[in-house]
């Protein structure tokens, strides 16, 4: 069945893929998951400077920030795997619908989305006007993390900036064109990669077991993902730990294998004992229009400071630890 028949309800509206991934470990949680769950929501420290600084809070392994959207106060999940802003239908029922489309997530069909036009979005240090958004049910994320989630946003709102994500310090730095860049502040990056940008999604190449693989950056994924269709030599370096339940943007769940890769390399640097799950990414590849071998999620962000320059099409990486 074609992706148009699966996803599109109104042909004029592009299908939406929601790659939010929430992991539910069977039995005992691993050490990382326990640490992330100690505080369901934790505030970050706000710095000052010439750049626009967008502080995050942690809800488990999700990065969230305060937001006021047309007078509705709540939290937005920063999900760089989302090609557009997606709002929780619960809080925006009175907005006039401008269209309808289908959507799909990593665990299958999510259901219908409705299109709306927003007046004002206020984020810390940012005010955005006249933004189109999609509405869908995000109650399962709220229930799992115990915090009010008004929606998701990705790079669609941030393309006019050089964007630097520092997950360890719960901070996003936005540098407008002509301002002091992150490289000038931090020094030379460890690695500079060429980025491919499609539908507001950032793609970059890494290497596992000698295989060059294309990864999308997905800050809404609680764990990095390796496609089940990767070459066999990739899985020879993957040690299975346990089965976990994967929950995407809808109500569906699926069982996947959780474990560690011996090594994943980006340019001249590598990360060892890299935590990942193995899942099918065919739907994601089809919607994004490019074969996607993996998703770099929260655990990758904890290992690096990453800066995306949309104008030059480059990704800069500064590694925090556990790298060579």
Level-1 CATH class name of the largest domain:
Mainly Beta
Oligomer type: single chain
Residues in β-strands, percent? over 45%
Residue-averaged pLDDT, rounded? 81
Indicate the CATH architecture of the largest domain. Answer: Beta Barrel
Query: Biggest β-sheet, characterized?
Result: 12 strands, mixed
Look at the helices and sheets and give the structural class. mainly beta
Rg measurement, Å: 19 Å
Count every helix, treating DSSP H or I runs of 4 or more residues as helices: 7
Number of domain modules: 2
Give me the count of strands.
Answer: 27
Question: Unreliable runs, pLDDT <50, ≥5 residues?
Answer: 1-18, 27-48
Residues in helices, as a percent range: 10-25%
In CATH, what is the homologous superfamily of the largest domain?
Acid Proteases
Give the N-terminus to C-terminus distance in angstroms: 45 Å
Shape: globular
């Amino acid at each position: 069945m074609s992706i148009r028949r699966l996803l599109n309800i109104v042909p004029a509206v592009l299908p939406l893929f929601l790659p939010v991934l929430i992991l539910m470990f069977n039995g005992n949680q691993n050490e990382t998951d326990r640490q992330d769950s100690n505080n369901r929501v934790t505030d970050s420290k706000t710095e000052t400077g010439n750049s626009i600084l967008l502080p995050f809070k942690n809800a488990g392994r999700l990065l969230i920030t305060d937001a006021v959207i047309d007078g509705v106060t709540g939290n937005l999940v920063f999900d760089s795997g989302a090609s557009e802003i997606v709002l929780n239908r619960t809080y925006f029922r009175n907005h006039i619908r401008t269209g309808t489309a289908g959507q799909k997530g990593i665990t299958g069909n999510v259901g219908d989305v409705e299109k709306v036009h927003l007046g004002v979005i206020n984020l810390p240090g940012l005010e955005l006007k006249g933004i189109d958004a999609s509405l869908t049910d995000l109650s399962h994320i709220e229930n799992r993390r115990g915090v009010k989630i008004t929606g998701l946003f990705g790079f669609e709102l941030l393309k006019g900036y050089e964007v630097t994500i520092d997950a360890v310090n719960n901070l996003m730095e936005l540098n407008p064109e002509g301002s002091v860049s992150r490289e000038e502040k931090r020094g030379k990056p460890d690695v500079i990669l060429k980025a491919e940008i499609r539908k507001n999604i950032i793609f970059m190449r890494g290497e596992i077991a000698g295989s060059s693989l294309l990864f999308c950056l997905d800050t809404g994924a609680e764990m990095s993902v390796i496609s089940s269709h990767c070459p066999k030599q990739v899985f020879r370096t993957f040690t299975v730990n346990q089965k976990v339940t994967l929950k995407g943007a809808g109500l569906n769940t699926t069982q996947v294998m959780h474990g560690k890769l011996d090594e994943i390399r980006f340019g001249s640097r590598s990360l060892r004992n890299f935590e990942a799950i193995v899942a099918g990414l065919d739907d994601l590849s089809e919607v994004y229009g490019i074969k996607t071998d993996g998703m770099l999620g929260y655990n990758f962000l904890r290992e690096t400071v990453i800066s995306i320059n949309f104008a030059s099409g480059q990704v800069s990486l500064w590694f925090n630890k556990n790298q060579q």
